[in-house]
Design a protein that fits this description.
- With 236 residues, the chain is of the alpha/beta class.
- The protein has 2 domains: 120 residues, Rossmann fold, CATH 3.40.50.1400; 101 residues, Rossmann fold.
- Helix content is 43%, strand content 16%.
- It is built from 8 helices and 8 strands; from the N terminus they run βαβαβαβαβαβαβαβα.
- The strands form 2 sheets. The chain has a 4-stranded parallel beta sheet with strand order 2-1-3-4, with helices on both faces. A 4-stranded parallel beta sheet has the order 6-5-7-8, with helices on both faces.
- β7, α7 and β8 form a beta-alpha-beta unit.
- The mean pLDDT is 89.
- Keywords: Lyase, Metal-binding.
- GO terms for molecular function: lyase activity; metal ion binding.
């Protein structure tokens, strides 16, 4: 029986250490997966192999193929640089190829968020991510994530976009309501986006900025949980 193939897609960075951390993450997934899948790591840009190069090697992608983009929300990178590339090879790739949605659209991603917030149990929280000016589904997905967090875990929650309008209003509102609140930034590592946002948050003394997303055990557990769920759906 052919192994499942799991293609993990990361944006890529100018920082070689971040790219190496991603490759190490993929190696750890390979080592810990109990379903005997073959994991392939690739990038959208900044490093190789790219998702386009992987699709050019499509003859080696047999069995069930899961394309797993490490993108939080829909936008240009998801719609064009991942989905668009896959659709360009639609007539030639394995028909059992499944493109997974962005992370915030996956119901299981809430388990990752809750684990990240464990140390600040029940404290008010803002989930911050890079929104999209071109796809309203990005905004809807982030708002839905915070709604579920509030409903299922009784935690005061709101969403905020790292760029664009509305940041000040949300931060002012939480500063007025709460003596202390936390912000979980959905960015990979402490890059330029994180640092720029951190500078803005300094103006709100009641706000505590949590660390960004890293290629750590928590993210690894989430990816493996998602893969297990996909396999169970196939077996039904």
């Amino acid at each position: 029986m052919d192994k499942d193939v799991v293609v993990i897609v990361y944006h890529g960075s100018k920082d070689d250490d971040k790219n190496q951390a991603f490759l190490n993450f993929v190696d750890h997934l390979q080592a810990w997966d109990d379903g005997n899948a073959r994991f392939i790591g690739c990038y959208i840009e900044q490093a190789e192999p790219t998702i386009n190069q992987i699709m050019q090697q499509r003859d080696s992608l047999y069995g069930r193929v899961y394309i797993f983009p490490l993108l939080f929300l829909r936008g240009k990178h998801y719609n064009q640089d991942v989905k668009g590339v896959i659709e360009a090879y639609e007539q030639e790739i394995n028909k059992n190829t499944v493109l997974l949605p962005p992370l915030c659209e996956d119901g299981l991603f809430l388990t990752y968020v809750v684990e990240r917030l464990y140390s600040v149990y029940n404290q008010p929280v803002i989930i911050a991510a890079h929104g999209s000016a071109h796809d309203t589904r990005a905004n809807d997905a982030l708002e839905q994530l915070t709604t579920l967090l509030e409903q299922q875990y009784s935690r005061p929650s709101s969403s905020l976009f790292l760029f664009g309008e509305g940041q000040h209003a949300v931060l002012e509102q939480f500063s007025f309501r709460y003596e202390l609140f936390y912000i979980l930034p959905l960015t990979f590592g402490k890059g330029a986006v994180y640092e720029q946002f951190k500078d803005r948050v300094l103006g709100y003394p009641k706000a505590k900025l949590l660390p960004p997303v890293y290629f750590d055990k928590s993210l690894q557990n989430y990816v493996l949980l998602q893969l297990k769920s996909l396999r169970e759906d196939v077996e039904k």
